[in-house]
Amino acid sequence: MPLIHATPATLPGAEHSSDAAICIHDLTVAYDGRPVLWDIDLDFPTGSVCGIVGPNGAGKSTLLKAILGQVATTSGRVLVHGASFDTQRRMVAYVPQRESVDWEFPVRAVDVVAMGAYPRIGWFRGVSRAVIDEARAVLDRVGMADLAMRQIGRLSGGQQQRVFLARALMQRAQVYLLDEPLASVDASTEQVILGVLAELKREGRTIIAVHHDLATASQNFDWCVLLNMRVIAAGATAHTLTEENVARTYGGRLTILSEAAEALRQAASRGVA
Amino acid sequence: MEPPPPMMDWTLRTVLLTVSLLGAAAGAAGAFVLLRRRALLGDVMSHAALPGVAIAFIVTASLGLTRSLPALALGAALTALAGAWCVSWIRRQTRLRDDAAMGIVLGCFYGLGVALLGIVQSLPTGQQAGLTHLLLGHVASMTSSDLWSVLAGASVVLILTLALFKEWRLLCFDEPFAQAIGRPTRRLDAMLMVALGLVIVVGMQAAGLLVVVALLITPAAAARACTVRTGSMVAIASAIGALSGAGGALLSASAPDLPAGALCVLVACAAFLVALVVGPAEGVLWRALRRWRLEARVRREHLLRAMWELSSPCERPATTPAALLRRTPVALATLLQRRSWSGPRLRALIGREARRGYIQWTATRDAVTLTEAGSAQARSLERIHRLWEEYLTRRADIAPTHVDRDADIIEHVLGPELVQQLERDLDRRGGGATA
Predict the structure, then answer these.
(1) Which of A207, B99, B292, B341 is in the most buried spot, having the most CB atoms within 10 Å?
(2) What is the complex's ipTM, to 2 decimals?
(3) Does residue A171 sit at the B interface (CB-CB below 8 Å)?
(4) Confidence of residue A4 (pLDDT cuts 50, 70, 90)
């Protein structure tokens, strides 16, 4: 058996295409000495709806965080429309996982949505009437006009997810990064979210979403990357979501790679103790 | 009674102003500390400030200087920050969680502080230094230098709060997002720690450790129960803090035997208790009231539905919709068996519905009849019940034997929109399930 038989659609070392919205080169990320992402090379094409698919613990959320510069990378670089994320920050909108915040926080839906406009508002200035009006309009776009003044803890899970999406829309970005936007939401929320994503695509923007459900991936995304610590396959959904690739991504067997990772982790934890 | 000497009056005013300002600043900073889920950190930093003051005093005394406020403040600030740093270091380096790390640091620094204060007492100038006031405060004997230091510290804290309100709210609510849009979260966090440290440093010298700790967290917690908006929470916490300070000072002026600091704390605690019970956002009272109202509604809907099911139309066959609503009387004895309600309770329930015009007693007063209004109400309740029951068996795969009980709990809170949705889902177009 070959050690690593990855044949990613985007070959490492190949010229990165210039029309990529996000371009990841040679990226490796490790937590506590345990590699989470190994040698990732990816070009997310501009104007497409891209899904990041893989089993639990495959490093899907970490990949988003690496794009956002929120995890320390061991090696590699990320370009957003040809330049580093730090200089292109305003082009990128982010929808974190719903569980990442405390929904009992004393704040109204419209105030959370307005947070998407903070970079435009700048320091030491309050949120103006105009921004609040814009936030209400965006809430209307996700079907929540009448819930704008409600405390966020009194919204259903799907409505909370829509608030996060609305906040990202307030950012007026070119690239939208979403972490599990469709996880445990109701059917109508799913329709609203998919509708908004389709609109964004029509406007030529790029969507990159972490997705947990293999069954719906082919309907929701036109470009997919199968991820399990490394890129198993990436490209147009029809070509990537093949039975063979899926089996390799979700395969239960420990590969040499993850065994090595486990050994490293053990060594690191012994070192601490 | 002779009027108080003018000097007393001046002292009282100084004290009032100082503790109110301190309370306002502590409330505002405390609100954000609470929202950042670091409520105990204020406690840790206050206790950690103690050894710093003692060390600063010993150092200045050995240099032949007298008690100097700036030196003591610097010492307090340095060890307070060291305490905060120790907490995060322990958390990063061990498997201990926040609470354990804070407990350890608080205990160590406090013990060190008390030991060092013992050394200060043994110094020749130590007795007059008044450092023992650091623990329980000396609110009633404040000086104008305390007022100036609190004024300066509180102004900085309040200006920081106003200037950074938007950013601090974002930091406390969703730090990863703040990072993603390029806000310097570490620096914002540091500014919050600076505000917290300022309150502790100036507050401890003016009012003592106990007062500072209480005014940081209690008003913020009280404010949390009063509002669902961040801005009003900070404002209310600030106001409660100021009022607690002022209230404590005024109370101690009329009862000079009681320590003012402790009175400030007690006023803040009272405010918290009041907010807990009647706070508009999370008051225990309102929650109890809502639950009681729902229970009352469930009871009355049970009665109307039972009456509907136990009665039949007066004319048979009921040919018009109106005829369907004219029902036969139901004996009280039959109703009693229907559910586990006691006789007096059932009578009370019937009495209330009779006043609403939904139920009438028969002439013999041993049976009741639904009025036409009551029948209409009962019929629609029955329809919702059947719809929900059917939904549970057909769509939610719930065993038929459990359906009636489950249907019971939820049907009382179904809104009209949900009922329409149920009808669509079950492919029903209008029409009562019992018609």
Answers:
(1) A207
(2) 0.86
(3) yes
(4) very low
Determine, yes or no, domain membership for B332: yes
Residue A234 belongs to a domain: yes
- Burial grade of B171 (CB within 10 A; 0-12, 13-18, 19 or more): buried
The answer as to whether B22 is a domain residue is: yes
Query: How confident is the model over B346-351, as a mean pLDDT?
Result: 89
- Identify all chain B residues contacting A70, using CB atoms and an 8 Å cutoff: 176, 179-180
Instruction: Residue A248: give its domain's CATH number.
Output: 3.40.50.300
Residue contact B177–A94, C-beta within 8 A: yes
Single pTM value for the model: 0.82
- Neighbouring residues of A80: CB distance < 8 A, sequence distance ≥ 6: A21, A22, A23, A67, A88, A91, A92, A175
Residue at B1 is within a domain: no
Is B418 a domain residue?
yes
B107 and B247 share a domain? yes
Q: HSE-up of B55 (CA within 13 Å, CB side)? A: 16
Tally of domains in chain B: 2
Under the banding of pLDDT at 50, 70 and 90, the label for residue B336 is confident
Digit-coded pLDDT (tens) for A6-22: 444 444 444 455 578 99
Model confidence band, residue B65 (pLDDT cutoffs 50, 70, 90): confident
> Given a cut of 70, is residue B202 above it in pLDDT?
yes
Interface contact A179, partner B, CB < 8 A: no
Residues spanned by the domain of B184: 10-282
> What integer pLDDT is reported at residue A88 of this predicted model?
92
Residue of chain A whose alpha carbon sits nearest to that of B180: A68
Q: Burial level of B97, CB count in 10 A (0-12/13-18/19+)?
A: exposed
Phi, psi of B14 (to 5 degrees): -60, -50
Angle between helices B230-254 and B209-224 (to 10 degrees): 130
What is the domain extent for residue A72?
A: 13-102+172-270
Q: What average pLDDT does chain A have?
A: 87
